Amino acid sequence: MTDEQAPVIELPDFDTLADLLVEEGLLTLSPAELHGLLCGQVAAGARFDPVTLFARIGELLDLEPFSRELTRTGIMQLYLATLQQLQAPDFSFELVLPDDDQPLAGRADALGLWCSGFLSGFGLQERKGSQGLSIEGQETLRDLAQIVQITTAADAEAEEDENDLMEVQEYVRMAALLVFSECNEPDGQPSDAAAETAPVLH
């Protein structure tokens, strides 16, 4: 064992991922939905090497294999940064969403897509063992299902609307951490001892 901390892996931002997906021709896939999907999978205990990561994304989203090395590198970085943040003891986990200077309605839509992706990823990952979610965890998933329907009027930019969205966004962030903590051991590893070890990003 060593006290040295692993280097922090930077989480790709929304626009960077959007550009990568556009270059792949994936015009309808939101970076928010993709990140939510990965978070749901990891929260349920999944761990991936590059081959299984891309295969799982393709399977869950019905996509052709990513053709560009830059895209594969970016998505691998997204996965590793997400895993690192979820395991971090400082609750530094972030959601991949549009910047705060983007229109409120678009940000609300992206948050709904993130929640949809999370629920899909979590629900489609087989969890080993008999341990289930607590009542609080189950209620949290139901709340996320409600947030999927979140909508904001196209012209809504009032400070009250902004604050409401920020509160919901923070709830979603903490909800993901709660679900992760219930399905993974304290060291961040899934309860299934045979889970794959996360690879190093080159």
Task: Give an overview of the whole structure.
- By secondary structure, the protein is mainly α.
- It has one domain (14-183): Up-down Bundle (Four Helix Bundle (Hemerythrin (Met), subunit A)).
- Helix content is 55%, strand content 0%.
- It has seven helices and no strands.
- It has helices spanning 14-23, 31-43, 50-61, 69-87, 104-123, 135-147, 159-183.
- Helix 5 crosses helix 6 (135-147).
- The chain starts with 13 loop residues before the first helix and ends in a 19-residue tail after the last helix.
- Residues 191-202 have low confidence and may be disordered.
- Pfam families: UPF0149 (PF03695).
- One of its GO terms (cellular component) is cytosol.
- Belongs to the UPF0149 family.
Q: Which key terms come to mind for this protein?
A:
mainly alpha, 0% strand
Number of structural units classed as domains:
1
| Number of H- or I-type helical stretches | 7
Question: Under the CATH scheme, which architecture would be assigned?
Answer: Up-down Bundle
Fraction of residues in helices?
55-70%
CATH topology: Four Helix Bundle (Hemerythrin (Met), subunit A)
SS-based class: mainly alpha
- The SSE string, one letter per element, is HHHHHHH
Shape: globular
CATH superfamily descriptor:
YgfB uncharacterised protein family PF03695
Radius of gyration, Cα only, in angstroms? 17 Å
Mean pLDDT: 85
End-to-end span in angstroms? 23 Å
How many distinct beta strands? 0
CATH class: Mainly Alpha
Q: How much strand?
A: under 5%
Assembly state of the chains shown: single chain
Low-confidence stretches: 191-202
